[in-house]
Amino acid sequence: MSETPKWYVIHTYSGYENKVASSIEKAVENRGMHDLITDVTIPVETVREVKDGKTREIERKLFPGYVLVKMILTDESWYLVRNTRGCTGFVSPNSNKPLPLTDEEAAQWGAEKHTETVEISYKVGDSVRVCDGPLSGFVGIVDEIEQQQNKVHVIVSMFGRETPVELELNQVEVVED
Question: Which helix (H) or strand (E) holds 81?
Fold first, then answer.
């Protein structure tokens, strides 16, 4: 038995991730098992959608049908998780002896952090209108998109010259023909 909690992946029925996570947290609270099960998380990313110049943020599950549990594996903790309604079992070659994630795998699964991405409705080569900032109203062509940096490079025509401009992703919208 390991004395440090490790991350394990649980498979759930599709759409039951939140219910399983809250059921496990409630059972841990009721049984006083905070020392065995330390964290329950659903890997999500915050997605910013840009439509018609308006930005809205939504949370999207990175791995639908899966929940991560940080726990010390004992018979008692295994039984609690395994017998939670909506849980189909641990993700492992042998369901009776689940394997923990390595630290690198846990980071890839998003156990420790929430990621943020921006969903945009334009691509390189599209005509866009600047809808915010000092260049508001200018029309240009998307030259480059850097989603991780939240930047878009647009070529606009100013005073008869092609001028490259760097803007945030939500400062432009697609020009409808």
Answer: helix 75-82
